[in-house]
Inverse folding.
């Protein structure tokens, strides 16, 4: 899965300039998703590589979501939630913080490049921060290159190959493999 | 015919140009049958490898077909039959017998498995007689002979300077004819070995026919953890499960090893599980090895390789169990036909 | 040790014949030399089968989960076992008064083939049981070890090399789940692996799924791991599983002063709680 062999990414001296990463942004409903919405309403531009997955709370983010994303076609994952103290459910993001601090270290220990997993607190009014964060992770991952295919299963590799790709690209709103991805119009609410 | 030891790698290099050649080797922390290469050389000092060669014929995960819609929206189903010529070079008698057992399952009784058969029919099976035995080996108690494996295509035995090579069937003769430039006339004296660990198998099967409800299963299963180690290192365990994985409009159906030790092995719709506890699962495994398979195919499914004996994390030892079965009394209440 | 063994047999027989416990969980000899296997003794006359020596490689706590239904259990506990028991009590898997703990000071157990101290025992710093109802023999001296040694060595490696190493580790996993089954902390009634219809874990054996399984397991038990090292010992593929477990333990200790799990049966675990003053790195 995800993590480890990112090694190859850095070994490559040059990364294909045309590489467009797929980024999953897991956003909490109450803050970050609203912030993304605000970015859209303000007509802010940010890279279209990001697919937004709305969750009720960052405390709901199961580490397996991150593993699955990296496994099934995403090159990077962004997890966002309310600022500490602002959680709609009082303490969800405090739990998320502990969990993700430990999990990020574990992933990077087993080989994931720093930068492929990014966690940020973004409030409902921080449209600019959302834009900047998405831009940041897209640039980082673009520089790192694709997650090496050895991390991903054969089916992902196949579906990314020419035969599968055309079809998948037609469904920009949903990241490959995520049954629960938001509807395109919701996900893009923050976008163009 | 003799194959000089210093020409072994030449022969294997030659074979590798035409087939995938698997040899017993140590790969990092484990020994297994690995693809022969510049860095992987055969090691015949391994009595038998920790992992059996079964995954060469019956991989732990085998893709069966892909399905979905192509770029034009046309539905497709593509079966995946990925067979190459394969040589298993240096299988011990237990592993050769295990392939016989898998042949019974996948090729007989009116059913030919379309994923096993192509691999099996392109296999050249080269057996190697044992020079030593491990402490957990007990194949000669299971009516095998560590010194010869009649079901192989070619039988080898190891001497000081050379291997003696004997063809056992037409396929083996054809292979030896092709290897002739590496062979010389002659023979060697192979000192026959026998296993130190013995179990008495007489009457065990007949006794097990009546031991389905015997209290012995409750006591032997206590220490079992229900991990799948014994089934995955077993050369004959062949249960599999079919699943699929989908990505958007493309999917793949595959089969993967399953283990009767796992709770989900028998789980049905609605979460009913006829083997929800440890005891019936342990009973199933041992009865399948020692009783049910013999009913159906006329041979024991345990080949005495001793891998489960060596690897079980809690030392639940099938040879001890066989001894216990031999000693068990068939009491009135406990007798129940399997 | 043979002195402790004879005391153990005597006490087991007493406990069983007095009816105080219905079963004693310990070890007995296996078929081969220097091999032991878990023993479940329920008759006083069988207490003679119990052994305690330097080849008792198995840990006992996990069995209490299955055997508790029979009544009160006497369990042989060394340092690692006792921490597992504490952790299981804390996780509401068993009640303290369902157990009679026979404490056994341990000087480490050995590999029966090489005669060397097992890796799990080389890194042990709790040889004496931390909880027991009676202690047989005298407490032994606790060794001073750097149990994070393995983690520090990996952390010092270049990322590419480490990634390669762990990729090979995950590639070799056969997903027999022995690591899960021996673990005193893996007590979920329904493991994510077995929830086949939910689809967390694919059944394929490939790098992706193997990594998914191993990392999820490590993360799930990381904050409660009692560092008994039994997963690593049980692994038929000899994978360095404690290099992952200890990484979690070390990080949680560094970040949240989590300490060592299983030293007592009170309180909670570090990922099951939070502190508003936790270090902040996601702003």
């Amino acid at each position: 899965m995800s993590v480890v062999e990112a090694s190859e990414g850095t070994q490559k001296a040059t990364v294909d300039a045309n590489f467009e990463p797929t980024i999953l942004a897991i956003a909490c409903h109450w803050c970050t998703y609203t912030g993304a919405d605000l970015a859209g309403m303000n007509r802010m531009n940010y890279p279209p590589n990001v697919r937004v997955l709305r969750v009720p709370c960052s405390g709901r983010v199961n580490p397996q979501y991150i593993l699955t994303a990296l496994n099934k076609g995403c090159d990077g994952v962004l997890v966002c939630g309310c600022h500490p103290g602002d959680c709609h459910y009082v303490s969800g993001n405090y739990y998320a913080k502990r969990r993700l601090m430990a999990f990020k270290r574990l992933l990077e220990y087993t080989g994931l490049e720093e930068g492929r997993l990014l966690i940020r607190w973004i409030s409902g009014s921080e449209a600019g921060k959302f834009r900047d964060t998405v831009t940041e992770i897209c640039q980082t991952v673009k520089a790192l290159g694709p997650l090496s295919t050895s991390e991903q299963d054969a089916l992902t590799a196949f579906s990314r190959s020419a035969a599968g790709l055309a079809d998948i690209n037609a469904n920009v709103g949903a990241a490959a493999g995520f049954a629960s991805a938001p509807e395109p119009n919701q996900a893009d609410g923050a976008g163009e | 015919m003799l194959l000089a030891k210093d020409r072994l790698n030449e022969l294997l290099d030659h074979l590798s140009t035409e087939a995938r050649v698997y040899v017993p080797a140590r790969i990092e922390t484990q020994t297994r049958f690995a693809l022969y290469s510049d860095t992987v050389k055969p090691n015949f000092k391994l009595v038998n490898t920790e992992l059996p060669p079964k995954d060469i014929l019956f991989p732990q995960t085998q893709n069966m077909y892909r399905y979905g819609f192509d770029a034009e929206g046309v539905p497709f189903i593509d079966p995946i039959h990925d067979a190459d010529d394969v040589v298993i070079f240096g299988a011990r008698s237990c592993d050769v017998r295990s392939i016989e057992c898998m042949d019974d399952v996948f090729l007989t009784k009116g059913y030919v498995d379309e994923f096993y058969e192509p691999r099996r029919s392109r296999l050249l099976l080269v057996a190697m007689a044992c020079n030593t035995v491990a402490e957990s080996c007990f194949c000669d108690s299971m009516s095998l002979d560590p010194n010869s494996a009649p079901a192989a295509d070619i039988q080898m035995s190891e001497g000081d300077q050379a291997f003696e090579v004997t063809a056992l069937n037409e396929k083996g003769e054809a292979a030896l004819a092709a290897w002739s430039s590496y062979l010389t006339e002659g023979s060697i004296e192979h000192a026959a070995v026998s296993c130190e660990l013995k179990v008495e198998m007489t009457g065990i099967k007949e006794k097990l026919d009546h031991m389905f409800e015997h209290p012995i299963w409750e006591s032997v299963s206590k220490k079992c953890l229900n991990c799948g180690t014994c089934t995955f290192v077993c050369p004959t365990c062949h249960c599999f499960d079919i699943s699929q994985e989908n990505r958007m409009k493309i999917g793949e159906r595959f089969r993967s090893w399953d283990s009767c030790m796992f709770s989900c092995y028998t789980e049905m719709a609605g979460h009913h599980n006829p083997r929800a506890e440890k005891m019936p699962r342990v009973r199933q495994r041992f009865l399948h090895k020692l009783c049910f398979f013999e009913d159906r195919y006329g041979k024991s499914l345990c080949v005495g390789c001793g891998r489960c004996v060596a690897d079980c994390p809690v030392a639940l030892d099938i040879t001890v169990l066989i001894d216990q079965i031999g000693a068990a009394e068939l009491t009135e209440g406990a007798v129940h036909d399997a | 040790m043979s002195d402790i063994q004879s005391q153990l047999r005597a006490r087991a027989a007493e406990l069983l014949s007095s009816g105080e416990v219905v079963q004693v969980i310990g070890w007995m000899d296996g078929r081969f030399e220097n091999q032991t296997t878990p023993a479940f003794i329920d008759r006083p006359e069988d207490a003679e089968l119990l052994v305690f020596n330097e080849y008792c490689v198995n840990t006992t706590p996990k069995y209490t989960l299955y055997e508790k239904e029979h009544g009160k259990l006497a369990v042989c506990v060394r340092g690692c076992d006792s921490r597992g028991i504490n952790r299981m009590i804390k996780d509401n898997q068993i009640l303290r008064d369902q157990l009679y703990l026979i404490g056994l000071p341990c000087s480490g157990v050995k590999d029966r083939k090489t005669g060397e101290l097992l890796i799990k025992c080389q890194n042990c710093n709790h040889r004496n049981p931390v909880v027991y109802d009676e202690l047989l023999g005298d407490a032994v001296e606790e060794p001073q070890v750097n149990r994070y040694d393995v983690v520090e060595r990996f952390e010092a490696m270049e990322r590419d090399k480490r990634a390669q190493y762990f990729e090979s580790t995950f590639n070799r996993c056969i997903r027999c789940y022995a690591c899960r089954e021996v673990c005193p902390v893996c007590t979920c009634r329904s493991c994510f692996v077995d929830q086949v219809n939910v689809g967390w874990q694919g059944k394929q054996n490939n790098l992706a799924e193997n990594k998914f399984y191993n990392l999820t397991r490590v993360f799930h038990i990381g904050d409660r791991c009692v560092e008994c090292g039994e997963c690593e010992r049980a692994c038929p593929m000899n994978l360095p599983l404690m290099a992952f477990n200890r990484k979690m333990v070390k990080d949680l200790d560094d970040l949240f002063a989590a300490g060592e799990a299983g030293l007592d049966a009170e309180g909670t675990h570090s990922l099951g709680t939070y502190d508003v003053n936790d270090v902040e790195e996601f702003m």
Remarks:
- Chain A touches chain C through 44 residues (CB under 8 Å).
- Chain A has one domain: 4-13+21-178.
